[in-house]
From TrEMBL:
Name of protein: Polysaccharide deacetylase family protein
Family matches, as CDD domains: YdjC_TTHB029_like
InterPro entries reported in the protein's UniProt record: Glyco_hydro/deAcase_b/a-brl (IPR011330), YdjC-like (IPR006879)
Signal peptide: 1-21
One Pfam family named in its UniProt record: YdjC
Cofactor(s) annotated in UniProt: Mg(2+)
Keywords (A to Z) from UniProt: Carbohydrate metabolism, Hydrolase, Magnesium, Metal-binding, Signal
Top-level division of the source organism's lineage: Bacteria
Length: 308
């Protein structure tokens, strides 16, 4: 009997080790050397312009994932769309900052309960550095939880959590709170190897074997945006590595509303977002995905195969 139990234990450990050694592609049911891509639009809910452009990029373009900023003024519009289009891959862009000069929002949790998350005007801080300096971890955790609960209350079925301006993953205690809330709701949280360098940790020490760490993040830099963005996007897709890549873009129409929202900003401003919308809604983008054997995957697929 003892030998049989030892054999069962050994076989269990062997199977667990083999599962851990599988690539992300294999864990999702694809061949080992597949180039997996999540083509992801951030900041949905910020404005009508962002909402409208992102919906078009999803319905008619190549974007296959997006994340919603729950505290923002146009949240209700995109929540209505998400309820009516349950198949769309919408996650939550956990928001601890309010960065624009004249366009602001506060936390979802009532302000008296989150005094360390807000400035003197009652808005979330403009910078990540202020969040790191002043925000308490228990209040950060409760705000993450409040944003998830509010999204669910409005009929959204979140496919994942990710981090606006990466604020919630810039401090180890915040990162742990973010992972904790994701587990509470059985929602994947976006984690990537690039995060390890800033925090000087191994993400594997914080995650379980069924949770996923993205192999690489791609997002255009201001230098490339001001040079030749279309060439950068095309070259990035042509040279996409094997594994799971998270390509972060920001889509909006360069109109009066968006120019007002982003007034004083060039980087990630209104024109920037129109440029990204134009390329990732184009036939050229679709052609590049096909020619380079890129397999689009969604957070919904990851959630349902690995987390639930």
């Amino acid at each position: 009997m003892k030998k049989a139990l030892m054999l069962i234990s050994f076989l269990f450990c062997l199977v667990s080790l083999q599962a851990q050694q599988k690539t992300i592609a294999e864990r999702l049911g694809y061949p080992k050397n597949t180039k997996l891509l999540i083509l992801h639009a951030d900041d949905v809910g910020v404005s009508h312009s962002v909402n409208a452009a992102t919906i078009t990029a999803i319905e008619k373009g190549c974007v296959n994932s997006a994340s919603i900023m729950v505290p923002c003024p146009w949240f209700n519009e995109i929540a209505t769309y998400a309820r009516e289009h349950a198949q769309v891959d919408f996650g939550l862009h956990i928001t601890l900052t309010s960065e624009w000069n004249n366009y602001k929002w506060g936390p979802v949790t009532p302000s008296p309960q989150t005094p360390t998350l807000i400035n003197k005007q009652g808005f979330l801080y403009s910078t990540v550095d202020s969040v790191k300096q002043f925000a308490s971890t228990p209040q950060v955790e409760e705000e993450i939880r409040s944003q998830v609960r509010r999204a669910i209350q409005f009929g959204i079925n979140p496919t994942h959590l990710d981090a606006h301006m990466f604020a919630v993953v810039r401090k180890l205690d915040f990162l742990k709170a973010y992972i904790k809330v994701g587990r509470e709701f059985k929602i994947p949280v976006f984690l990537a190897r690039e995060m390890e360098r800033e925090l000087n940790i191994k993400l594997d020490t914080l995650t379980s074997k069924n949770e996923l760490i993205v192999d690489s993040i791609v997002s255009i830099t201001p230098e490339m945006m001001h040079s030749n963005p279309a060439d950068y996007y095309a070259q990035t897709l042509r040279s996409l590595p094997v594994g799971l890549t998270y390509f972060i873009i920001h889509t909006a129409y360069d109109n009066e509303e968006m120019r007002s929202v982003t007034k004083g900003f060039i980087d990630w401003g209104s024109a920037w977002r129109q440029t990204e919308f134009d390329f990732f809604s184009s036939a050229e983008c679709g052609k590049l995905l096909k020619e380079n054997n890129i397999q689009l995957v969604t957070w919904r697929e990851i959630r349902d195969k690995l987390y639930r």
